[in-house]
């Protein structure tokens, strides 16, 4: 996947920074969940693929635990942060639709990655093909941790939320129309005596949990739904899944 051909305009530098410093708890908790499951199976080395890797918070945990890491994200700015945080890992810019997944012990796709439509090809058929590719690429006994935003993630009325941190603030206006959840995100990052402003529009398709479970099972996975990563509960309307590929010699 060539970075020169990656034209997806998502999580530009200011939002990538804010997301990294202010909203990293899910990534860290998801990484701890994966490491715990791998160690419980006595899998202490091998490749972990982090799709939607953001600034590399999870990748850092995987690398520190002794795993090789391949990260992928549609945001070039986020991948730049990840490369600085985890220089020993490999990272790519682009969509999961194009990602070639090498043989791996685990794959992680958390943070509503599969809902976003930055890439217009991202629909159910693309997701089904992605699941089939992952199943073939995972080593026997491998695991796949993922989440999606479901229909109940959509607000009944448009909402506005605000958060701020050290030298940054973000306003998110959320609405649901035409079968898409739309987030209008305005960022403010301090630059000297002033604040720099930027705006992004993110759109997500919402998927029922039962549909995702069916797609995973059709690809060959055993699936268990989860409502938290480590000690961090998922947000209202989010559905988490731990999908596994049977170990060699296991009864089907």
TrEMBL record:
Its EC number is 2.1.1.-. The keyword Electron transport does not apply. Keywords: Methyltransferase, Transferase. GO terms for biological process: methylation. It is an enzyme of class 2 (transferase). Residues 49-145 form the Methyltransferase type domain. The keyword Signal does not apply. GO terms for molecular function: S-adenosylmethionine-dependent methyltransferase activity. PANTHER family: TRANS-ACONITATE 2-METHYLTRANSFERASE-RELATED (PTHR43861). This is Putative S-adenosylmethionine-dependent methyltransferase. It comes from Crateriforma conspicua.
